Amino acid sequence: MCCAVALDDVEIEVDVPTLGPVAGVAASPRRWQGRVASLERLADDVMRIRIPLPSGERVAFKAGQYINVLLPDGQRRAFSFANAPQDDTLIELHVRRIPGGRFTTQVFTTMKVDDPIEFEGPLGRFTLRESERPILFVAGATGFAPIKSIVEDAFERGIQRPMELYWGVREAKDLYALDLAARWQAEHANFRFVPVVSHAAPDDPWGGRRGLVHEAMLVDHPDLSGYEVYACGSVKMVEAAVPEFIAQGLGEQFCFSDAFTAPHAASR
């Protein structure tokens, strides 16, 4: 639905009893109890949290899915798995600090190792489809997290489809996993990495691509008719990018997106 452009008002009616067994949608996701194993600042405003589960427990998730962190009053904050499903002894999250954000501020100020953390999941359908088409990933900021999970899972499963990752950030210092993505490119012949910086100052020494990340991808791929595209980032990024992808030949059925919800961004 993120890739469909409505031409008029629409009404959507979902038959949940029918949808559930077909699509594997659980009525209520399982709740889990974990503890913070480590906190590592990856950038000025990005924290990596690693969360182990009690001994012997594993979350059976698919690359690209997410969890809801549960706050004491029942509110939820969604964060994608950043680790591949094969590496399931710990859950890895990339948390970006949102000014005034309730949970993200806690992560950067008061959270400490061994703190309890409750969450539910796995959730979501932003997962790699089975096909032979080459893949284009477009990630904005911490939209890199679910893409990291998908890419590492693809490597583990020996998927040889051509993959290209366009990762867009405001400044070069925000490319918090630049070395990792460069290593993927060096080690896997079917993988290409293109970092893009949108707000570099004119005198910034950054020598790579500049501008909006989806526009960089479109310049390199003027005809998207043979591709699958996976886009993850802010609602603004996804809403701007998807119509342009379709205008350049991408079939709507081959466009998959996971947008950060703007209405609640300030409360994260």
What distinguishing features does this structure have?
single chain, 268 residues, alpha/beta, Elongation Factor Tu (Ef-tu), domain 3, Rossmann fold, 2 domains, 4-stranded antiparallel beta sheet, 6 helices, disordered C terminus
Write the layout of secondary structure elements.
Blueprint: H1 16-23, E1 31-35, E2 38-43, E3 46-52, E4 66-70, E5 76-80, E6 90-96, H2 102-109, E7 116-123, E8 135-140, H3 144-156, E9 163-169, H4 178-187, E10 191-197, E11 209-210, H5 213-220, E12 228-234, H6 235-247, E13 255-260
Parallel strand pairs: 8-9, 8-12, 9-10, 10-11, 12-13
Antiparallel strand pairs: 1-7, 2-3, 3-6, 4-5, 4-7
Characterization of the model:
- With 268 residues, the protein is of the alpha/beta class.
- It folds into 2 domains: 30-123, Beta Barrel (Elongation Factor Tu (Ef-tu), domain 3); 135-267, Nucleotide-binding domain of ferredoxin-NADP reductase (FNR) module (Rossmann fold), CATH 3.40.50.
- The chain is built from 6 helices and 13 strands.
- The strands form 3 sheets. It has a 6-stranded parallel sheet with strand order 11-10-9-8-12-13, sandwiched between helices. Strands 1-7-4-5 form a 4-stranded antiparallel sheet, with no helix packed on it. It has a 3-stranded antiparallel sheet with strand order 2-3-6.
- β8, α3 and β9 form a beta-alpha-beta unit.
Gist of the model:
With 268 residues, the chain is an alpha/beta fold.
- The order of strands across the largest sheet is 11-10-9-8-12-13
Number of helices: 6
Structural class: alpha/beta
What oligomerization state is this entry in?
Answer: single chain
Helix content: 10-25%
How would you name the CATH homologous superfamily of the largest domain?
Nucleotide-binding domain of ferredoxin-NADP reductase (FNR) module
N-end to C-end Cα span: 24 Å
